[in-house]
Amino acid sequence: MTGERILVIEDEVAIARFIERGLIFENYRPVIRHDGHSGLAAVRDEPPDLVILDWMLPGLDGLEVCKRLRRASDVPVLMLTARDDVSDRVQGLDAGADDYLVKPFSFQELLARIRALLRRNAPASRPEVLRFADLSLDTGTRRAQRGERMIDLTAKEYELLELFMRNPRQVLTRDVIFDRVWDYDFGGASNIIEVYVRYLRQKGEAGDEARLIHTVRGVGYVLREE
Ligand code: CA
User: Fold this and answer.
1) N or C of the chain: less Cβ packing under 10 Å?
2) Which pLDDT belongs to residue 116?
3) How far is CA 118 from CA 35, 88, 194, 199, in A?
């Protein structure tokens, strides 16, 4: 039984309706808003389980909506965009989006990404605290801690770090990381893994803290001591 509440912020009425109908058919509970301000208000009124956010919106655009959303919530955000070059993707990821779908898209692909985001964001059945060196990751609260320092993570950052923490000292290839964290091919030449490793390093290796996520050039990454 699903029934997750999915907020769709999309100004194009035909597309919004297409998504709404499909989501209802799949037993989700869609809530449709046609602009950024009312979308943010809907998040405040009743927090959704996932947000589908169009990039090109009148007034407040999708990027700005995503940034504002992130100040208050770590709900998974799937951005819809007609743009498909890497710098735009990075911009969206920097704003806090968890995933992307480029228009036009098939409804099956939209569903696959929704399922992946919801599954990743589902609370762990038995919360535990994973530890490596002075880094710990609580699978219940989904927060990390380095020494005494608490680290807030977005949904995708958490998944990537959890993958590393569950496979310490093992080299994880880019293919494995794609497969386990993104569930599908993000587009071959995408630098999404590099972008997220950079985020994790910025948050988890601040100041003079020792490096924990090491690059294995041409292969992937490994969580290990210096
Ligand atoms: Ca639009």
Assistant:
1) N
2) 87
3) 23, 24, 23, 21
Q: What is the pTM of this model?
A: 0.59
Q: At what angle do helices 192-204 and 86-94 cross, to 10 degrees?
A: 30
Q: What is the distance in A from the centroid of ligand 1 to the CA of 50?
A: 18
Tokens matching residue 133 = 């060196």
The two three-digit tokens of residue 187, written as one number: 């587009």
The span from the CA of 127 to the CA of 122, in Å, is 11
Quote the CA–CA distance of 63 and 203 in Å, as a whole number: 21
What's the rounded Cα separation, in Å, for the pair 52 and 159?
19
Q: Rounded to the nearest whole angstrom, what is the distance from the C-alpha of residue 3 to the centroid of ligand 1?
A: 26
Q: Which residue has the tokens 């407040």?
A: 60
Find the 19 Cα to ligand 1 centroid distance in Å. Answer: 13
The pLDDT tens digits of the residues spanning 123-147 come to 656 788 999 999 999 988 899 999 9
Distance 35 CA to ligand 1 centre (A): 9
**Which is more confident, 182 or 34?**
34
| CB-CB contact of 31 with 6 (8 Å) | yes
Average pLDDT for residues 144-156, to the nearest whole number?
93
Q: How far is the CA of 18 from the centre of ligand 1 (A)?
A: 14
